[in-house]
Every structure is written in C-alpha cells, then in structure tokens.
C-alpha cells in the first residue's frame, strides 16, 4: 500500500481536534471537522504561494463554465 505522506496528519493535531468536539460525537463529525481544517490549511497555503484569483478573474472563469 502506498501512502501520500503529504496529506498525513500528526497524532497531536487529531487529538487537538478531538479535544474541541463535544463528549459525544460521530465519526462523521470528526471527519467533517478534520476535512474543514485541512481545506482551510490548503487555502491558506494557496494564498501564501500566490495561487489565488481576484474576484474579476473568478467571475470570468465562472462565465466560461456556463457557456
């Protein structure tokens, strides 16, 4: 089995996420929270690396989707 280590989580990060959940939670709650945190992190990294669109650029790109 091959692993994509770029997307690996630290045990400490998972424990931190669990600490902020209520005492009773579903696996869906955990996965949703983890997915949200990962998405925000990717977005912040994209911003830092300059991989962003202006509102005008986004509007132009979206117009091409509906042609």
Textual characterization of the structure:
The chain is 63% helix and 0% strand. It is mainly α and 67 residues long. The chain is elongated, with a radius of gyration of 17 Å.
The gist of it:
With 67 residues, the protein is an all-alpha fold. Helices cover 63% and strands 0% of the residues.
SSE order, one letter for each helix or strand: HHH
Total of DSSP H or I helical runs spanning 4+ residues: 3
* Low-pLDDT residue intervals, each spanning 5 or more residues: none
What is the terminal separation in angstroms?
42 Å
Largest sheet: none
Helix content class = 55-70%
Q: Calculate the mean pLDDT score and round it.
A: 88
Radius of gyration: 17 Å
Helix vs. strand class: mainly alpha
Shape: elongated
- What is the count of β-strands? 0
Query: What fraction of the residues are assigned to beta strands by DSSP?
Result: under 5%
Topology readout:
Layout: H1 11-19, H2 27-48, H3 55-65
Which properties best describe this structure?
single chain; 67 residues; mainly alpha; 3 helices; 0% strand
